[in-house]
Amino acid sequence: FIYFSETEVKSIFRQISQHFKHSFIAFNTLNKYLVKKKHPSIDPDKAPFKWGIRSVGEIEDWELGWKQFQTFYPLDYYKSRWKWVRMTRFIPSFKKGLTISLMQTVS
């Protein structure tokens, strides 16, 4: 969802909850701060990051019928992939900067 605007992301959540009762959705999130940062491997003209959140609770606050089911922090997994970057998991703002979230509709 990081490539969509917040309005577009809200619309996606609204549409899914209206048409698929008792559903789950899994997605990656970036912290709002990281959305604004430029990364050398990403061309902002071709694939700009547009949406980020501080926590999944922000989506619950939209009152579109979703609640957090589970959240994973990639820095806690795949030790060989992250190498030294994995050490940043001890800093909460870095650890929570990239998440994999699972949410479910509330009936």
Task: Please describe what this structure looks like.
The protein is an alpha+beta fold and 107 residues long. Helices cover 30% and strands 21% of the residues. It has 5 helices and 3 strands. The chain has helices spanning 6-19, 32-36, 57-61, 79-82, 92-95, and strands at residues 24-30, 66-72, 98-105. It has a 3-stranded antiparallel β-sheet with strand order 1-3-2. The radius of gyration is 15 Å and the shape is globular. The model has no long low-confidence stretch (mean pLDDT 86).
> What's the total count of β strands?
3
Q: Please trace the helix and strand order, writing H or E for each element.
A: HEHHEHHE
What global shape is seen?
Answer: globular
Figure out the total of helices. 5
Structural class of the secondary structure composition? alpha+beta
Oligomeric state, counting identical vs distinct chains: single chain
Straight-line N-to-C gap = 24 Å
Helix content: 25-40%
Reported for the largest beta sheet, the result is: 3 strands, antiparallel
Sheet with most strands: strand arrangement:
1-3-2
Task: Write down the overall mean pLDDT.
Answer: 86
Please mark out the parts with pLDDT under 50 across 5 or more consecutive residues, or reply none: none
Strand residue content: 15-25%
Radius of gyration over alpha carbons? 15 Å
